[in-house]
Amino acid sequence: MKLRFLGTRGEIDLRSPQHRLHSSLLVVYRRTSLMIDFGLDWLERPPGLEPRALLLTHAHPDHAGGLRRGAPWPVYATEETWRAITRYPIAHRELVPPRRPFAIGGVEIEAFPLEHSLRAPAVGYRLAAGKASVFYAPDVASILDRSEALVGLDLYVGDGAGIRRSILRRRDGTLIGHASISVQLDRCKLEGVLRATFTHCGSQIVAGDEHAVESTVEALGRERGVRAAIAHDGMEVALP
């Protein structure tokens, strides 16, 4: 399995050469390629890609806004996400029931509900192909059924909105917002995940000194026995 980070910027106005486009991931396994999320940045930027399918984590504009004029590929999303983007002219719609595994090509996929937003409920995707498994949750406060989502992972790809400080609040008993990188690394340690990369980067990362930020995140990972890194646009990762 190969991963290419097409975009790594969160829902902020700041941009940098390393983080120009809204967070999106391309997953390639043999002849199958899948794209996850298609934010507003992609509306005027045809990606020049031909994925077999597009998966949506949720309906926020930086994850689904690029579909306002439709899509040439099948689009997979949960019922809550389809309700939020019902007016988008998407011809081929596929429903993703959470916690019900399915396959596209040779990639096994399972959607896990996340706490993140009440208006745009999100899922994280566990993807497995060959001997590799990845969990992708670019916007996350917490993962429901976390142990099952993260068991035996080769790579956790999480939310880079904040490094040490979480951006969280509770509303109607639900945690919403973004867990910090530090908190997510704590969760990786608890679940035995040895490698983590962070996308959906917030202003602290995008506007910060690149080397200083990388050093800080690497150090936070070492403290927990996790190999940690910040993703950047165009970054590629090959998994066994």
Describe, in plain words, how this protein is organized in 3D.
It is a single chain. The chain is α/β, with parallel strands linked by helices. It has a single domain, classed as Ribonuclease Z/Hydroxyacylglutathione hydrolase-like (Metallo-beta-lactamase, Chain A, 4-Layer Sandwich), CATH 3.60.15. It has six helices and 17 strands. Strands 7, 8, 9, 10, 11, 12, 15 and 16 form an eight-stranded mixed β-sheet that branches. Strands 6-5-4-3-2-1-17 form a seven-stranded mixed β-sheet. The radius of gyration is 16 Å and the shape is globular.
Furnish the topology, listing elements before pairings.
Elements: E1 2-7, E2 24-29, E3 32-36, E4 53-55, H1 61-64, E5 75-77, H2 79-84, E6 93-95, E7 102-104, E8 107-115, E9 122-129, E10 132-136, E11 142-143, H3 146-150, E12 155-159, E13 167-171, E14 174-178, H4 181-191, E15 195-199, H5 203-206, H6 210-223, E16 227-230, E17 236-238
Parallel strand pairs: 3-4, 4-5, 5-6, 10-12, 12-15, 15-16
Antiparallel strand pairs: 1-2, 1-17, 2-3, 7-8, 8-9, 8-11, 9-10, 13-14
